[in-house]
């Protein structure tokens, strides 16, 4: 059975989860953590997807970790190489031993009373943690999106989905139809074309595609001239600048980018009419994610006659294939439904806060990684217009910065508090797979830190300097009751811990610490006479604890009638009296020394030693705060009646609740 308490629990052992663990153990080596992975292997998305040709559509110099440079020759790597890279990173950093495989998180319950999460798994195990970090991405790993095609039961061939690719599928010499036009479809077509009789990509509408070289010329040159880490930084910086510049240009000058992409397609396919029919979308570039084709492999498969594109709508499946709205029948032995993915917010974990179910779709995203109103929880998602890892790594570093701040200020919980009037979609894409799930994802706001910008350069500059306290409410850690020494045999007592209360000014300074106006040049202190800048010595025993502990009180003092402040104001003892005649027990109950009197005529140590307040008096008439500042209590008195009014309470600020 998996049990135990951890400082941090990370959900997911993919690209994000391993990166988070690396950062965590490097920056906070004393923290305990574990990674909960539903699958039986490292890799996440790159372990799940095994369809032909699966690869990155981001360059590996930005998709790889900044702390572990990519050293392979390919700029666009296969899924197998990416999976191996993640595994090697985990092994080298001794992260693999922290992973609990086959552990799917189903529920997580936050308790404000305990300031911790209780995490439930599919096997019924429970663990607790102070901070929960979801790094499982936003894909539903259990299934992809499968439309309800008419007549599907009549089809005599084989239908497969890329997310559940069968190991025994043989398409050699067969007619293949790939339904879809997204990243998966444009990857599958050129990968299956060499062995198939023919591959047809059936799409309802065109998608923007752009060729990228599978080898980076700048990276190759940099590796020849520079050390490996420096060469990787050069390639990484170049690709970040180019991708960000292209995205900004596409959003600001969409018509210019449309013409450029069309020109590239015409140059590859040599047929403007074919391009306008099948590769000229109605929407602007980056309204949907741009698809990458390594070295133009899709275009090459089309020009070689091994693949083709059909733009039409499905009418129904028939035994021999698919009949289209135009009446054309596409004969197919194998149909691949590359119709998209299903998105799942926060890894599908059911979150509750103090027994109340969190409606993730009704929350607002704080900095794109926390949820308004949900304490000590973060989730990791990447950019839609750049490499996933760029944003994921910024999220890891911000999360650790928040944990450091909480430790430095002795805080137990951090809860984002969303401003009113927020409601923009989290993801600014019109793609079908995004639109189908938007209502289940948190929203974003109209200002920082509730707005999400798809701009790595801006985020890289602002995130390290971000104010972790902005729009954040913190809860202090509970004050622990100190251990008590054995009470005096002459005055047994049972100290009781006081519950935390509102902010209080704390005890007034001892009169012995205030200089007398009649003695501007005090003599040097002696062992038996403290100087004017030194606090009066407190005898050992419970009195010392009462002076330093914010959680002490006395049942005797709590049950008695304390002397009022007004009494202290109306009947102060005169300076002369304080110096020559110590207060008797009866006097202490009716005429406490006022703060002003204490400032001008402190009780001398010798007086305090010869005339302490008796235990019986303390039990029936506890000393008021002003009196406590001027009349030291003897050990026996402190043991029977420590005054809770002079003890400090936990202090909270405007950002602490």
Automatic annotation (TrEMBL):
<protein>
    <submittedName>
        <fullName>Predicted flavoprotein CzcO associated with the cation diffusion facilitator CzcD</fullName>
    </submittedName>
</protein>
<dbReference type="Pfam" id="PF13450">
    <property type="entry name" value="NAD_binding_8"/>
</dbReference>
<dbReference type="InterPro" id="IPR036188">
    <property type="entry name" value="FAD/NAD-bd_sf"/>
</dbReference>
<feature type="compositionally biased region" description="Pro residues">
    <location>
        <begin position="497"/>
        <end position="508"/>
    </location>
</feature>
<keyword id="KW-0521">NADP</keyword>
<feature type="region of interest" description="Disordered">
    <location>
        <begin position="463"/>
        <end position="657"/>
    </location>
</feature>
<comment type="similarity">
    <text>Belongs to the FAD-binding monooxygenase family.</text>
</comment>
<keyword id="KW-0560">Oxidoreductase</keyword>
<dbReference type="InterPro" id="IPR020946">
    <property type="entry name" value="Flavin_mOase-like"/>
</dbReference>
<dbReference type="GO" id="GO:0050660">
    <property type="term" value="F:flavin adenine dinucleotide binding"/>
</dbReference>
<keyword id="KW-0503">Monooxygenase</keyword>
<feature type="compositionally biased region" description="Low complexity">
    <location>
        <begin position="471"/>
        <end position="496"/>
    </location>
</feature>
<dbReference type="InterPro" id="IPR051820">
    <property type="entry name" value="FAD-binding_MO"/>
</dbReference>
<keyword id="KW-0285">Flavoprotein</keyword>
<dbReference type="Pfam" id="PF00743">
    <property type="entry name" value="FMO-like"/>
</dbReference>
<dbReference type="GO" id="GO:0004499">
    <property type="term" value="F:N,N-dimethylaniline monooxygenase activity"/>
</dbReference>
<dbReference type="GO" id="GO:0050661">
    <property type="term" value="F:NADP binding"/>
</dbReference>
<feature type="compositionally biased region" description="Pro residues">
    <location>
        <begin position="517"/>
        <end position="542"/>
    </location>
</feature>
<feature type="compositionally biased region" description="Low complexity">
    <location>
        <begin position="543"/>
        <end position="657"/>
    </location>
</feature>
<keyword id="KW-0274">FAD</keyword>
């Amino acid at each position: 059975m998996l049990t135990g308490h951890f400082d941090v629990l990370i959900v997911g052992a993919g690209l994000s989860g391993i990166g988070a663990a690396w950062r965590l153990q490097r920056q906070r080596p004393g923290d305990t953590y574990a990674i909960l992975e539903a699958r039986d292997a490292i890799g996440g998305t790159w372990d799940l997807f095994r369809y032909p040709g699966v690869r990155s559509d981001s360059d590996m110099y930005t998709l790889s970790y900044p702390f572990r440079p990519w050293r392979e020759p390919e700029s666009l790597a296969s899924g197998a190489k990416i999976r191996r890279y993640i595994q090697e990173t985990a092994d080298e950093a001794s992260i693999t031993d922290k992973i609990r495989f086959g552990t799917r998180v189903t529920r997580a319950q936050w308790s404000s009373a305990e300031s911790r999460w209780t995490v439930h798994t599919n096997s019924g195990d429970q663990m607790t943690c102070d901070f929960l970090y979801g790094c499982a991405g936003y894909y539903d790993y259990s299934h992809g999106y499968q439309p309800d095609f008419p007549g599907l039961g009549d089809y005599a061939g084989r239908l497969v989905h890329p997310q559940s690719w069968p190991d025994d599928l043989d398409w050699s010499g067969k007619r293949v139809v790939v339904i879809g036009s997204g990243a998966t479809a444009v990857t599958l077509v050129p990968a299956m074309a060499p062995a198939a009789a023919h591959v047809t990509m059936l799409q309802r509408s065109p998608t923007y595609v752009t060729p990228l070289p599978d080898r980076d010329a700048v990276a190759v040159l940099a590796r020849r001239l520079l050390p490996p880490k420096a060469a990787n930084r050069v390639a990484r910086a170049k690709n970040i600048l180019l991708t960000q510049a292209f995205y900004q240009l596409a959003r600001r000058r969409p018509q210019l980018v449309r013409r450029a992409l069309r020109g590239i397609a015409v140059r590859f396919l040599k047929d403007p009419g074919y391009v306008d029919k099948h590769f000229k979308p109605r929407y602007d570039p980056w309204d949907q994610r741009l698809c990458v084709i390594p070295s133009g492999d899709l275009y090459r498969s089309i020009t070689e006659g091994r693949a083709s594109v059909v733009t039409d709508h499905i009418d129904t499946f028939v035994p021999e294939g698919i009949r289209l709205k135009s009446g054309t029948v596409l004969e197919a032995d194998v149909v691949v439904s590359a119709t998209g993915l299903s998105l799942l917010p926060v890894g599908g974990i059911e979150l509750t806060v103090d027994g109340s179910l969190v409606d993730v779709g009704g929350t607002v995203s704080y900095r794109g990684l926390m949820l308004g109103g949900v304490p000590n929880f973060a989730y990791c998602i990447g950019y839609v217009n750049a490499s996933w890892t760029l944003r994921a790594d910024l999220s890891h570093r911000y999360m650790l910065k928040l944990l450091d701040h909480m430790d430095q200020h002795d805080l137990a919980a951090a809860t984002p508090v969303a401003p009113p009037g927020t409601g923009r979609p989290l993801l600014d894409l019109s793609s079908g797979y995004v639109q189908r799930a938007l209502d289940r994802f948190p929203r974003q706001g109209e200002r920082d830190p509730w707005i999400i910008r798809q701009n790595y350069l801006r985020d890289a500059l602002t995130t390290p300097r971000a104010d972790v306290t902005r729009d954040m409410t913190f809860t202090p850690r509970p004050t622990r009751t100190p251990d008590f020494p054995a009470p005096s045999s002459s005055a047994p007592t049972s100290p009781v811990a006081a519950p935390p209360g509102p902010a209080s000014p704390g005890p007034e300074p001892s009169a012995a610490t205030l200089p007398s106006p009649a003695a501007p040049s005090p003599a040097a202190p002696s062992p038996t006479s403290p100087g004017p800048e030194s606090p009066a010595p407190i005898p050992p025993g419970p009195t010392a604890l009462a002076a330093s502990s914010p959680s002490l009180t006395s049942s005797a003092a709590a049950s008695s009638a304390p002397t009022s402040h007004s009494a202290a104001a109306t009947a102060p003892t005169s300076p002369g009296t304080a110096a020559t005649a110590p207060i008797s027990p009866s006097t202490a109950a009716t005429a406490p020394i006022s703060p002003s009197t204490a400032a001008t005529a402190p009780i001398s140590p010798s007086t305090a030693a010869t005339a302490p307040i008796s235990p019986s008096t303390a039990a029936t008439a506890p000393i008021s705060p002003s009196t406590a500042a001027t009349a030291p209590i003897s050990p026996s008195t402190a043991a029977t009646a420590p005054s809770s009014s002079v003890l400090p309470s936990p202090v909270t600020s405007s950002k602490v609740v």
